[in-house]
Amino acid sequence: MSAEMSTETSTVEEFRAEVRAWLEAHVPAEPLPSWTERAGFDLHRAWERTLFEGGYAAVDWPAAYGGRDAGLRRSIAFAEEYYRAGAPERINMGGLYLLGPVLMQYGTPEQCERWIPDLLACRTIWCQGFSEPESGSDLASLRTRAERDGDHYVVNGQKIWTSMGGFADWIFALVRTDPEVGRRRKHHGITFLCIDLRSPGVEVRPLAMVDGTRGFAEVFFTDVRVPVENVVGEVDQGWRVAMSTLGFERGAVFGDHAKFTADVEALAALVRVRGLEDDTRALDELGRVLVETEVYRANVYRLAGIAEAGGDLDSTASINKVFWTQMQHDIFATGLRLMEEDGAVVGDPAAVPYADAATRRSWADWHHRYWYARAAMIFGGTNEIQRNIISERVLGLPMEPRP
Amino acid sequence: MTTTHPTTDERQELVRLTADLLGRHCGPEQLRERLDAGTAHTPELWGRLAETGLVSALVAEERGGAGLDPSYLSGVLVSLGEHAVPEPFLETAVVATSVLAAFPDSALAVSWLERIGAGDALVAVRLGALTPYVVHAGDADLVLDLAEDGTVRALLPADVDVTPVQALDPLRPLATVIRRGEDAGTVLGVAPAAVERARVLAVAGAACLLAGASRRLLDLTVEYVGVRRQFDRPVGSFQAVKHAIADLAVMVDMATSAALSAFDAVDEPDARRRAWAAKAYAGDAADRANVSALQLHGGIGFTWEYHLHLWLKRVMGLAASYGTTVTLRRELAVELLARTGEATER
Lengths: 403, 346
Ligand SMILES: Cc1cc2nc3c(=O)[nH]c(=O)nc-3n(C[C@H](O)[C@H](O)[C@H](O)COP(=O)(O)OP(=O)(O)OC[C@H]3O[C@@H](n4cnc5c(N)ncnc54)[C@H](O)[C@@H]3O)c2cc1C
Known about the structure:
Chain A is of the alpha+beta class. Chain A has three domains: 7-91, no CATH class; 126-235, Beta Barrel (Butyryl-CoA Dehydrogenase, subunit A, domain 2), CATH 2.40.110; 251-394, Butyryl-CoA Dehydrogenase, subunit A, domain 3, CATH 1.20.140.10. In chain A, 47% of the residues lie in helices and 14% in strands. In chain A, the strands form two sheets. A four-stranded mixed β-sheet of chain A has the order 1-4-5-8. The longest helix of chain A is centred in the last third of the chain and has 29 residues, at 280-308. By secondary structure, chain B is of the alpha+beta class. Chain B has a domain at 194-345: Butyryl-CoA Dehydrogenase, subunit A, domain 3, CATH 1.20.140. Chain B contains eleven helices and nine strands. Chain B has helices spanning 8-25, 28-37, 43-51, 74-82, 89-100, 107-117, 192-227, 239-264, 271-297, 308-319, 325-345, and strands spanning 123-126, 134-135, 142-146, 151-155, 160-165, 174-179, 186-190, 229-230, 233-234. In chain B, the strands form three sheets. Chain B has a four-stranded mixed β-sheet with strand order 1-3-4-7, covered by helices on one side. The longest helix of chain B has 36 residues, at 192-227. Chain B starts with 7 loop residues before the first helix and ends with a helix. The mean pLDDT of chain B is 96. Classes of the chains: A alpha+beta, B alpha+beta. Chains A and B meet through helix 8, helix 9, helix 10 and helix 13 of A and helix 7, strand 9, helix 8, helix 9 and helix 11 of B. Flavin-adenine dinucleotide is lined by residues 127-131, 136-137, 161-163, 216, 375, 378-379, 381-382, 384-385, 388 of chain A. Flavin-adenine dinucleotide (FAD) binds at residues 127-131, 136-137, 161-163, 216, 375, 378-379, 381-382, 384-385, 388 of chain A. Chain B: Residues 206-333 form the Acyl-CoA dehydrogenase/oxidase C-terminal domain. Chain B: GO terms for molecular function: acyl-CoA dehydrogenase activity; flavin adenine dinucleotide binding. Chain B: Keywords: FAD, Flavoprotein, Oxidoreductase. Chain B: This is Acyl-CoA dehydrogenase.
């Protein structure tokens, strides 16, 4: 997310027209099979390559890395066109939305050179190794150890719930480098470390998710040697880098409102197909999520304005996360309610026969995305944790007595 | 006419000015005095709003105003909501000035604009189905009647029967307004675009007022739970209390974003959709604010003595005006079905 001046000379509308034409020519006619199986994953990866070659993998990123330096408004226009066209789900989310922005903030020039172009081209897929079996909401209690040995760290421990772990090439992980200081002040002594998953001693065990797909994994580290130059930010100061990462995870992804707008249009198609246009209950349900998406769109524009004026969005991230995750859940739950009995039939496009491709694509993986909506209220810091942050840090309510 | 939006600094300056004025002249004690006196509007406060230039902000310079774009007033409206201002500012300074300006050739419209600009006219607005009850009609020197077909009528007190109803919020008085006969009043003209713009301004403006009033309920609650102690700790340190407040803060924040952005977008092609959504959502946020604020104040909030009820009633009154959440939502759904239905058929 770079709000600074862009070097792109087209107007936003010219840029939009260019993107639209390119997407029309390139978006696959049929929805890709789910990325949670290898075949679908490879197709998604090929699509990422096509995007990269077109110069569209991350339009707001610097041209030096393969972006377009397009600035905030054009990047919002890109996203609006992307979702309008029903283009495939992005798979390198950990890299694109989390690690990339974090590297641009905390990484050395060498690290940016080394990792950003590859992740943009989807030559490397990244995953996020924060959570551990005993450290979820209480993330700072994490125990995976990294001990210095010459110009390497030796890593031992375990991560869990790692999204895309089974498909990823690299992991950015939080590790404990100073257990001594950590015993007194648990947010200290943590380091943000990038680890090649092909290193000896790494074992990835995919875990089946609630819908049966292997979307996340456990990652075990046994005496894994990692070069010290893979530390992002300062040693022992990784908590700050982690908070920045979570800020990106919770905050507004500029343009993603267009995804929800497309979903609500798919709901409208459902209402029509089921002949519920005059059913007040259906209109109420449709109206409610439509209002939420309009409100979210307005908020994205407002935040973009703040960012462009050089303002700080930190205090908005938790509010944004609670809102968008609830809205997303409302949208998908509403779809299932409106499908009535057919809501129990997974991925059955026959239950929802549609003319246009974008709507068809939407319905083919409605359940998959319903479950994702449920997950979003848990990951990135659960919504309960966000409410703690909003009440204590944004509104200044008295702290919970700590043990 | 090209529209110029205010800079961030200009916005903040206007909001600061408004909040400062209202802090001094429209505090809870002043509101309570009016409640006891049984009057909402006072010439004194209106005069101060006029003196600062807020009432004439949108009136053209040649008519004695500042000729500003409505977007200069979005933050001001939120602030008026926060202070539960008992004056027809939205109706007079925003909606009426916008409609009257659509009739530059009507001497009558021009003279009313000048009176508004000078601070000596209060205007009430009747907007078809959006206003079954007309706010501040009893105080008004002029009622503008904006019909669905775009006909705009200027109605003087002698042209109408104004029947006050007992408003839930006595500081936002309501009345039914009936024209005395078909010929009563003066037709200024037929201007469907101006009437549509007035509707959008009224609905988006009401969303701003509502977001502001809900924000005040949030702030009052945050303040109270921080000082009220039970079980040897501030009640605001209990997580159940915190989470209820956090949920409210999310809604109030998003409602404010949507309201400001809808009001600033009145001249955009999707203005109606944005205004309707903003008001619908502001109504939901206001509901939550109403419920949580009273619940978290406990007994004190239930008294006439304590001033919470001023805002509880303000949000209930505003939520029920200029389109309720349910009607606006349904209209949006119907519009979406029509819009996307056409796209599929094409
Ligand atoms: C689909 C999915 C993908 C994920 N992907 C990743 C990933 O890629 N990388 C990664 O590092 N992690 C990932 N996670 C993990 C996620 O971040 C954690 O699940 C989350 O932080 C919660 O931790 P936990 O599961 O241990 O739950 P717990 O922390 O044990 O929480 C259990 C319940 O208690 C509540 N709770 C806990 N503490 C408090 C408190 N102080 N106040 C109020 N309520 C509280 C929680 O809100 C929750 O409802 C993923 C999770 C899911 C579901």
